[in-house]
Amino acid sequence: MIWEIFITGIALEVLFLRWYFNWKGPMTKKEIEDFMEKFPELPFSSNTDAGVIRQFLEEDNGKDFCMANFITLNKGKVKNPVTGESQDALSGAQSYMKQILPTLLKHGCHPVQQAYRVGGHIDTWGTEDKMEFPMLAMVRWRSRRDFAKIVAPSRPKGSKGALETKVSSMKNTLNVPIEIKVSLFMRPQYSVPLLILLMCCIAQIALTTI
């Protein structure tokens, strides 16, 4: 029985790794060209330079990345474009994330953190435009291929009204893809294997003490 426990643990770890990481390598030239053909029809194309998105995809290294979203929400109540009801902007932004979250999880993507500014600019120089974004949200994307797959449909499955809700809630936003090189937080690729190992050890102890 003990061996079965750890075999099950190994199987769970394999399933997790298969879901959480990109095993197909960088995007192919054909995948990039197929995406760029659809790009002019996508909702965010009016706010994104085609050359910037093409370079981002062509420089794909096959690794995961995070999208840092600097956000300013609208003040007061905003009208929900789907229900027509009034709601605060934060509720609208949260509604957007709830709608898109199942699609993100399906592709091994997930929110990383949400933070709010608690002061003004400190130790800042070399820029005339001091950005005033009171909110930061980060989302982890499994790969640039997954990013392209999720944003390519003009209306991703299960996201009816999500984009409209997002736009109505936000006054402005600045989004930048980044790669995390150093982090003191234990990321899922480390915490999940340890959690599985801990569960196996607890199961083993429970069986041996019965």
From TrEMBL:
KW Transmembrane (keyword) present: yes
Keyword field: Membrane, Transmembrane, Transmembrane helix
Bilayer-spanning residue ranges: 6-21, 190-207
The protein's name in its UniProt record: Uncharacterized protein
Annotated source species: Glaciecola petra
